[in-house]
Each structure stands twice: as C-alpha cells, then as structure tokens.
Amino acid sequence: MLEVLRRAGIAPRACAWELTLGCNLRCRHCGSAAGPRRSDELTLEECLRVADELGALGCERATLTGGEPTLYPDWDVVGKRLVQHVPEVSLISNGWAWTARHAQQAAQAGLRGVAFSLDGLEKEHDCFRAEGSFRRVVEAVKHTLAAGLPVGINTTIHRLNTSQLPQLRQFLIDIGVRTWQLQFAIATGYMAENRDLVAPPEERLWLIPQIAEMCRASDNRIKVYASDHIGYFGKPERDLRTGDTSMPFWLGCRAGCHVIGIESNGNVKGCLSLPSQVQGESRFVEGNLRQSSLREIWNRKGAFAYNREFRIEQLGGFCAVCRYCDICRGGCTWTMYAESPALAAGNPHCFYHQAVKHGRGDLLDEEPTDEEKAFFG
Q1: How many Cβ atoms are within 10 Å of 147's Cβ, its own excluded?
Q2: If you write DSSP's letter for every residue of 228-278 in order, what string do you get?
C-alpha cells in the first residue's frame, strides 16, 4: 500500500500547525500537554516564511491550532499569509475566550472556517475542560456564524460521553454547526494521567458502527467525519472513509507521506499528535525550521522512516498476524505509541482486532484466518 501512496505523490497535502503551546485551559485529555508557552516559539517573521514554504510544497489544507492558537498575538496575520498560498485554511479553538472580534479577524484573514472543541453535553464537557466552558463554546459558535463563517466541532470520545453521541449530533444541528469530527481519547499527554477515562477498546464494537451510521446519514444539515484513528476493516469501514470514495478503506497512517505537523518552536513531525520534547521523546522530530527549510526536511533521505520505509517486521501483537497488516501498517502511529512506546504491542483500539478477539464475525466482511483466531487462543 505504500506504493499506492508513493504513486499519489509524497507531499505535505495536509498540515496541522501549532502556533503556540500556550493554553488558557488544562484539559484532562490534552495529548499535547499544553499550558505554558514554549520558550523558543517562532517569531512572526519566521512564521510567515514557513507559510510561504508550505505553499511552495503544495500544501492543500492547513489548520492553525495549539495550545490555544489565538494566544499567539499575530495568529490572524499568519492565517492571512497562509490563505495566499493554501486553498483551505482553518483554525481550531477551545472557545474559552473567543469573542465576536476573533470571529471578525478570522473572516478578514480569509479562513475557510473555524472549529471548536466540544467533548460531550454540558456536564461531561465541563468535567474535561473547565466549568462554564460548554456555554462559552456555544457563544463562540454564535459569534462565528454571525461573522459569516462556517463552524465545525471536534469531539473527543471518552468514557463519560460514549452514550451521548446521537443526542450531541442533534444539539449541534440545532445550533448551526455544519461539520463534526469525532476522535477517541488516547492515553498520551495529560490523558496518560487519566487512563481510566479512555473508552475501553472493546467498546469499539458498538461505537464504531454507530459512528459509521452517523457518517452515512450526513446531509446538508451536518457532515460527520471520523478521524484517522477510528476503524479499521469491517462492515463499518466504507462509511468511515468518506474522503476518497474510489478507495473506501483505510490506507494506513499518512504521517510523513501526505501529512505534516509543525510545532510552535519550528520542530517538524509527520503528524502533530506524535509525541516530542514535552513527552521526553525525540524520535518523531525530523528537523527544525530554524536550521533547515521545510523542503529540505521533507525531502531528506531517511526522513519519516517509520512510514516511508515501513517493514511488516516493525509490527507486534495481533497486528503482526493480521491479514491487513501490509495495508494498515498498524493503524494510527500515535495510538500505537500510546499503547507501547516501543511500537511493538500492536493496536488494540482497531475494530478488526476487537471483532476477531470477541468472535464477532457478523461485523466483518471476511472470515478471520486461522492464524488470527489462534492469536487469541
């Protein structure tokens, strides 16, 4: 499957850019462990240069994020520069301090939309973020819609909100949200201190079909998207992969192949979610934009080797015997790291893994192989 990605072109089509690690909240599930700013964050001049470099490399979608990106003083200036080069530029905010002025700045910068984080209904969301946060997000949505910008919501699924998704979907429709992205809480960053709040892997057996159904039911009221660490390989799969209807199945992690992440100090990773110095980890940092150009980092021989030079021998656990191992490559690299920093334990959050483990062949398109069934005894 890597050959398919190569033929499609190894280019940073999608970029998540952490403008600052500074944040005005300390959310219990924050994988970035955001809070204080980095001491060496890029200056405005440096950010504008990086925006130009992203455009020159053919980036198609860029998302400004954090921390809380609006705590970077010139976030809208960076956004406006990106808009000159990148077809689709958006921003993700926690909404805590978002005002009508922020919405106007986003619109004037030419952003295509703004997304806010909402992690359940009021009680559950506030439990993860801060008391009053839910109501502030709702107000932020109103301000942004009034400025003429479409609004998206990102929801992290955790143990407290798994039963709320259909109700939350209707609430988002009622307040005018147009897109909704779902993702699972993963035990990295602050969530590593709250592992008991991660939805158990076996719950994927009913959660993923429910998410697939909401993706399939998307209409002109709201479009539902599943993030790249939701799946893989079962009857729900074709409804989860809406981005490419010609190949409606998981093609494996695209970090360093079609996706790039930029940290606020200029460090470059294949995916912004992958751990780095905040977590005491360095293996996923491919270079720094103060020392090399983005093109040099992206094209460096041996860069992003965990994906570009993938070998099946890298996989462990059930992933090593799975019939889809050469296509899937273990699923989301970030999720695998959370389970095992050595990347050798496999990915128990995979739908196919859980379906085989629990004998749920009714949820699969193909009968599991003898080797797959034997793995679980």
Answers
A1: 18
A2: TTS--SSTTHHHH--S-TTS-S-----BTTTEEEE-TTSEEESSTTS--GG
Length of the chain measured in residues: 377
- The strands making up 287-288's β-sheet, listed across from edge to edge, are 223-226, 179-184, 151-157, 113-117, 88-93, 61-65, 14-18, 259-262, 267-269, 287-288
- Alpha carbon distance 14, 261 (integer Å): 9
Nearest to 351 by CA among 172, 261, 193, 226: 226
pLDDT (tens digit, 9 = 90+) per residue, 292-326? 999 999 999 999 999 999 999 989 999 999 999 99
Which backbone phi and psi does 288 adopt, to 5 degrees?
Answer: -125, 140
pLDDT in the model for residue 243? 56
As given in the structure block, the two tokens for residue 1 are 């499957």
Classify residue 280 as left (phi > 0), alpha (psi -120 to 50) or beta. left
Residue 125 CA, chain-centre distance (Å), reads 19
Q: If you count DSSP H runs as helices and E runs as strands, how many of each does the chain have, helices first?
A: 15, 10
Residue type, 288: N
- pLDDT score for 6: 63
Rounded-to-integer distance, Cα 346 and Cα 317, Å:
5
Higher-confidence position of 20 and 229: 20
At residue 315, the 3 state secondary structure works out as coil
The pLDDT score that the predictor gives to residue 5 is 60
Identity (one letter) of the amino acid at 80? K
For CA atoms 81, 82, 83, 85, the dihedral sign is positive
Q: Is 297 helix (H, G, I), strand (E, B) or coil?
A: helix
Spatial separation of the C-alpha atoms in residues 143 and 360, rounded to whole Å: 46
Shortest CA distance to 211 belongs to which of 179, 250, 239? 239
d(CA 349, CA 195): 14
Rounded distance, CA 244 to CA 334, Å? 22
Q: Give pLDDT tens digits for 26-64.
A: 999 998 889 999 999 999 999 999 999 999 999 999 999
CB atoms within 10 A of CB 24: 15
Over residues 110-130, the mean pLDDT reads 97
